[in-house]
Amino acid sequence: AFPQTADFLIVCEEQLQRVQPDGDVAVMQSVADAGVIIGKCAKPMEYARQYCTKREGLMAKKYVEEVMRLSRPLFEEPRFQGLESVEAFKEQYDQLLQHDVDQIIMDRRI
């Protein structure tokens, strides 16, 4: 009976490890959750870019703020840090803020 109990405990330990914050199950769940958040940001981000291109600052600002609100967990929650999809999103987000929004500001000054 002892070896079986020991084997059972090892299996339990392995399962526990998988759901720890850095375990594969937890990471997969974080990737899935991040995907949902990024998905919700896709349309507002697209609209923000379009309005930036058209130089319509107020509408662009509205959608940039919506993206900021929706994506906040990606920047604040530790479980999302370092995920590939989140890092790619952050690059797009930075590009939107730096390039597109800055362009409107520059155009307004000219």
| Beta-strand residue percentage | under 5%
Structural class: mainly alpha
For the secondary structure, the number of strands is: 0
Q: Helix proportion of residues, in percent?
A: over 70%
User: What's the Cα radius of gyration?
Assistant: 21 Å
H/E element sequence: HHHH
Question: What is the approximate shape?
Answer: rod-shaped
Distance between the termini: 83 Å
The biggest beta sheet is recorded as: none
* Rounded average pLDDT: 84
User: Number of helical segments?
Assistant: 4
Layout of strands and helices, then pairs:
Elements: H1 2-19, H2 24-53, H3 57-76, H4 84-109
Helix pairs in contact: 2-3, 2-4, 3-4
Task: Summarize the entry for a quick read.
This protein is an all-alpha fold.
Can you tell me about this structure?
The protein has 110 residues and is mainly alpha-helical. Helix content is 85%, strand content 0%. The chain has helices at residues 2-19, 24-53, 57-76, 84-109. The termini are far apart. The model has no long low-confidence stretch (mean pLDDT 84).
